[in-house]
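Chapter summary example: a protein plus uridine-5'-diphosphate-xylopyranose.
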Amino acid sequence: MVKNVCCIGAGYVGGPSCAVIAYMCHDIKVTIVDLNQARIDAWNSDKLPIYEPGLDEIVFARRGKNLFFSTNVDQAIIDADLIFVSVNTPTKKTGMGAGMAADLAYIETATRRIAQVATTSKVVIEKSTVPCRTAQSMRTILEANSNKDIRFDILSNPEFLAEGTAVTDLMKPDRVLIGCLQTPDGFAAQQKLIDVYSNWIPRERIITMNLWSSELSKLAANALLAQRISSINALSAICEATGADVDEVAYACGTDSRIGPKFLKASVGFGGSCFQKDILNLVYLSEQLHLPEVAAYWKMVVTMNEYQKMRFTHRIVRTLFNTVTHKRIALLGFAFKKDTGDTRESAAITLCSYLIQEHARVAIYDPKVDAKQIRMDLTEPGVGTNEAEVDKHITICKSAYEACAGADALVICTEWDEFKMDQLDYQKIFASMQKPAFIFDGRLILDAPKLRDIGFRVETIGKSV
Ligand code: NAD
Ligand code: UDX
């Protein structure tokens, strides 16, 4: 019976996924460890390091009872029966495969640490998203350090939670996926993890397969989801040029039960730490396998996303009489989607950087992203804007009303509920803006006819004026 679980990596995945294990299995002691002291301090404080609806309740209910956050990685490894490796696997910035391949350095460091300090047998679970066959490298490192008293078994258990809905996704997942070596030892290790999840997940939702299928399924699922968004976004360009309405097209297609209605919302472009990274990872894998047509096919999903972000930005500049110089543009939403404070790969970053280069004054408001994060994102290498430009062109506001006051245009970048028609007083906003007052809805959350009645000029993604 599993009594002690450790999770290496207290990020967006390790934190919530293992907090939910502690919440659902009071007999299991769960210790989530990280090298980042500030992050662990935040997990141990009243203000958790990440915002996720419902997460505070879960952590506060179990912290100090069977849920612990610590920087003592070695002790947690020594104590654990099961170890989740949930460290970051970002796109490599330099060296071989730069800009495409996943950086596996964090995975390897964590694996070597397990191999070095373990004094008893462990089941090591690959929770991070990794290229197909990474488990083989982990296994080789672990096996090189095993002896007659200590053995390591490796499982793949990719995470499918989406940010903003992580807690519900973890409590009621569509499926839990476990991959193992198809050997008696592999099956025995797999059973231990099944027993943990079976505490709250119906057995038929726990699916099992071989390690390599499991690893590839994670990349495949993200590629397929992102591909749907790029497909509807490609159609949104046709809609804008023809008078078709992308919401109506999505509805018409989505009611076909073979297509289904989800993930067909046109937008300013997908963001988040996973989609782009995982597709590029798949592209790199295809190239390595000498499958150039396959690589080109998936690459196009990312290319289309870049095109969508630029297309929307160009539409803003074109509509504002081909110049935004010195104009105030209120940008509502900076997170990559609603209900998260995460800004990784957010479309808002591309948009802001472009508007700064066009000398606009951008007033940003996001309910969950603070000024420090926004400044950091806009001054990252590669974004195209420096500190002086950011100081000069960006104002971070405390409310949507403050951002919109005196603005020439309002741009919806994130679909936060508080920007919807019944939440914000658009009459008041109109009165406070320059005239003509423009609205650019990059998320299809506003009622354009009603806004036009107020006096706004409205431009919506996937709709012609
Ligand atoms: P993250 O950057 O938020 O967290 C990773 C944490 O691991 C960091 O806090 C880092 O300090 C820590 N870490 C790195 N090396 C370590 C080591 N050797 N010892 C201890 N701690 C170490 O990343 P994340 O968003 O939680 O993603 C983790 C993995 O899960 C990635 O592979 C990602 O692709 C995958 N994933 C992410 C999501 C998501 O929504 N964010 C969803 C599914 C899967
Ligand atoms: C994604 C996957 O959904 C999840 O299963 C995986 O574990 C991690 O990657 P996440 O990136 O957190 O999750 O959020 P998701 O809801 O998938 O949204 C990703 C991006 O696509 C966001 O920018 C979102 O706004 C955008 N999106 C989503 C659309 O533009 N249209 C849609 O119809 C859906």
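Key point: The two ends are 63 Å apart (CA to CA).
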